[in-house]
TrEMBL record, chain A:
It comes from Flavobacterium urocaniciphilum. It comes from the Bacteria. This is PRC-barrel domain-containing protein.
Automatic annotation (TrEMBL), chain B:
It holds the Pfam family K_trans_C. The lineage of its organism: Bacteria, Pseudomonadati, Bacteroidota, Flavobacteriia, Flavobacteriales. GO terms for molecular function: potassium ion transmembrane transporter activity; symporter activity. The chain crosses the membrane at residues 12-35, 47-70, 137-158, 170-191, 211-233, 245-266, 286-307, 338-360, 366-387, 396-418, 424-441. This is KUP system potassium uptake protein. It comes from Flavobacterium urocaniciphilum.
Amino acid sequence: MKLDKTKIIYEKWEQLSNKKVKLLLKDGSEKIGNIESFTHGTNSFIEYWILNKTNKPFNLLIEDGEWIKSSDLLEIYFYEDHSIIIL
Amino acid sequence: METKHGFSKKVTAASLLVALGIIYGDIGTSPLYALKAVIGNRKIEEILVYGGVSAIFWTLIIQTSIKYIWLTLKADNNGEGGIFSLYALVRRYGKKLVIPAVLGATTLLADGIITPPISVASAIEGLGMVDGLKDTIIAGNNVTVGLVVLILSILFFFQRFGTQVIGKFFGPIMAIWFSMLLLVGISQIFLHPDIINALNPYYAYEMLSQYPNGFWLLGSVFLCTTGAEALYSDLGHCGIKNIRISWIFVKTSLVMCYLGQAAWLMHQTEDFLNGRNPFFEIMPDWFLLPSIIIATLATIIASQALISGSYTLISEAINLNFWPRVAVRQPSETKGQIYIPSVNYVLWFGCVLMILYFRSSEHMEAAYGFSITITMMMTTLLLGYFLRYRLKWNKFAVWGIVGLFAIVESSFFIANVAKIKERWMFLFFELGIFMVMYVWYEARKIHNRYTNFTELGKYSQKLAELSEDDSIPKFATHLIYLSKADRRHHIESKIIKSIFSKKPKRADVYWFLHLNRTNEPYTLSYNVSELIDDKVIKININVGFRIQPKTELYFKKIVQELVANKELNLHIRPDGSTKYNNEPDFKFVVLEKYLSVENDFTIKDNLLLNGYKYLKNMGISDEKAFGLDKSDVITEQVPLIYQPITNIELKREDYEIANK
């Protein structure tokens, strides 16, 4: 069965207390922010990551974050433990 | 040991009788029309009669005995069978397996509307042979059609009361039916014993290869096995052993009856059938009327099995998210028996339409069977996955088996394609069922893709603070949300918004209830996670795909257990009414999503989501579907935003400049 890397990212993200990440996208752009929520998909465990520019301790405008498709990700850097997952 | 339907799985005389009544109605009534359809208006000659009965015998061996009785019954999903149960067993091995499952179920339902009229019409038309009724009962005339419509209408009308009482007679009636087939068949074989030679497969080969257009006769031969798929669907009622053992008797009776009909064809003197039905021709004169009565009862039982099977199929489709939620009722105390009014009306309308359109069983024979070949091919495909991945059979053996049945069933399919011109109206019906399943399934996938989850832990402290904030009026003692989040720490963002935005909903205890539909048919279990003691509790209830969820009932039972185990304190009512009524106050919140204008999606997604909305409006409400209709329920409309429009550049203008 094909390895679902979005699940690996998710399991890593779930364990972290600091959700700040740096995302490198396939179009070469970089995004920095906090992943606060996500959506599940059918082709991959996580379809979208929702990235907020700032870390709000209590956020009610969850949709306000930027929706980033898992398939657009090239790599993800976690600030808490300086680890990188390459997709 | 009992099946989930309350029948015995042990092999006893009674359980075998039950199997006869439930499982074999469809396949058991095929002798009424299968050989007659093979002969049709053709000249009665040895190559056709021997070849026809030989092809029927080998079809029963390959398609029914080997494929269904031996192989497919192995695909037993905790005692349950049927294409959706099989799909539930293998779906983790391929995302595209949803297509054969939906296609198979669609075609099974579609051909289902022709089984009752063809069976009942075949039996009633036999009355035309009874002295005194010859001029009254003529296949296709208004009296015959009216009688069939009347019988079918009565059958469908009584569905709402269940089969608890009359069901007890199904087994004995079918035992009489099969005994009749056996004895009458044998009596004819004695008149032309050479017919036994027709069991040699060479005769089938000869007919298919040498008889003019012989291959196309497979379309009629196939009618002898149309009930094989139904046999698998009803697995849960009787258990494998009962089915396999009773099949020995059933098959012997069927083969003897077909051989008896063939023997009669060989020793009778006319060149053509001229409207005669070999099935009734082999009956002794004195037994003709009783045989027609028994045949009519058998066809009613066959129709009943098909109707019950359709309810089960739709109920499974609802629970597997292939069908909009519609009212599902339990008509009697019999375990597992359900009645779906909307399906009943559609089936009744379809069956009546069929008999009014085709008018006689002969015309229906020309249209029947095409869809079932598709169902069987889809079952073969799913079965291949089951044998390979669940039973871990050698891949070459699996390829060999799937290949063999692919050849056999493709041949039947091609031979049945000729029937399309007779059954073009079915295509609309099939397309309709398929589109409902497709739109519902795909739209739900889109919904799920944009359902935003967040960490419950992040908000649990805020929930605790809100709960204890006396400055805010209490909304409920126990506030319960239905959640799609299957993980302990997750929750939909919409639920958090519902609690905190506008007027915050203060409650003593916040419950988040997740119903997890399992791949097993009858699972019913739960687990509890208390994120904050007595304040924020997540419950995961595992419900099998054959169970109608009764959320309120499950929830109250869980609460009772938690209180009994001293894991939970029941809090007082917010309005101080506890002294008058010590039952805790539970308030359920159901979030009903609507499409927000803030969307930007493709034409396809747009069509799917609008179709979904339309279908949803035709079904029952969420609170009824979750069994909350007796509870204190608040339904909140929440916008569902797909593909939110981002990067809005909203510039603030200087007031003075703007007013210059």
